[in-house]
Amino acid sequence: MIWFLAVPLLALLALLQSTIFRQILFLDGSLDLLLLAVICWSMLRPEEGLVWALLAGLLADLFSGGPFGVTAIAYLLVAIGIGALHGRLWTHSPMAVMAIALFGTVIAHLASIAMLILFGHSLEVGYLLTYVTLPTAFLNTICSVPVYLILRRLHFIGAPVLTEEEA
Amino acid sequence: MINPRRRFLLLGLALLLTAVGLVILGQVGVIAPVQDLALRGVTGAQHSLSTAFFNIRDFFTAPRNLQELIQRNNQLEAQVAQLEAEVVTLQEQASEADALRALLGAARQQPENSYLVAQVIGRDTNPFLHYLILDQGSDAGIRRGMPVVNEKGLVGRITEVSATASKVQLIIDPNSVINARIQESRAEGILQGQSTGTLQMIYIPQDVTVTVGEIVVTSGLGGGFPPEILVGRVISVHRRDYELYQTAVIEPRNDFSRLEMVLIITNFEPVQIGPLQGTTP
User: Fold this and answer.
1) pTM of the entire structure?
2) Which of A25, A41, A47, A64 would you mutate first to test chain B, the one with the most B CBs within 10 A?
């Protein structure tokens, strides 16, 4: 029902990510709206979350000089992890959303670093985890609840039979 | 009827394999036309968004009551940067002239560079890489390998070109490699980008004395960049007697987080020395 919204929404987020959010740095990290959208949507709709992860990752890779598809794989791993644990480990409380945003960001970054190293990039992992991953995870954690609430509204548009308690 | 969890994992696996397939296709170069088409569609929007962002940032970060003073200060800073660049060029030319006076019959002719101004309209979405997206592409004559500079010195080189945009690999990107020379000691080495935002100069001969504060410029060796473009200055030197070479940490002159406009050198043809490396004497 709201599938047609995914592509323009994620394209807009990718554009904002490359143009604005990557310029607003906290240490060397920045808010990753695309990843947040993938994490939140995967919590709401795990199967669609997988497709969002692939789409968002490919859109991010479009604005990157790195190997095409690396971000898509990193996002997909996060979406698979969230979907596999869906309904087992968490409720949809703000704390749970924040915790998943935190761990999801760390996992996506670890996957991304691992793949870049695989492609021959010489990265200083310790520095990157400290000055890029941790600040990004912090920003993503803070912003996760508002993003989740916005996307949950979108989720209810597509699934009006569910009540908020059921979700 | 497939179990929902099993179906989810199967779908995840299928999409993961799709992504891996796309990575492989991307490495082969099959994806490039699609990327070109997609980037062409968003360049205009990205240009408008980045211009608006720069204006808003300037509005909030500049103290308005000191506007005139800031404007004057900016002019003077630009003038100082320009003069410093000229001094570096003159010092380089004088140094070369001293060393080669006996061999050179005539003054060395420096080719006039042609420049194209480009606006930075985006940054790499991957936080571990250092690339910029510029608003000029193949329609404006931009080609892969062209060097990118600004008034402070070397910025990077064009690595991908679409019709209306291009990607620049910054010199601080971990995969960036530049042949460089330390200006006063004349030591040559290779500059590698670091995740920390600095540069590491490796393969500096042990018999050369490198001091902190020395200026580093491109050497032109390898044909990837024109010679004598200012890169940065030495901030530390690491020399161990038991090693073949010494290394130095170089601080770039540019603040790459605040680049808005750059110059692309359009008349420089990077030399492809790959075929030469495979030949045997």
Assistant:
1) 0.78
2) A64
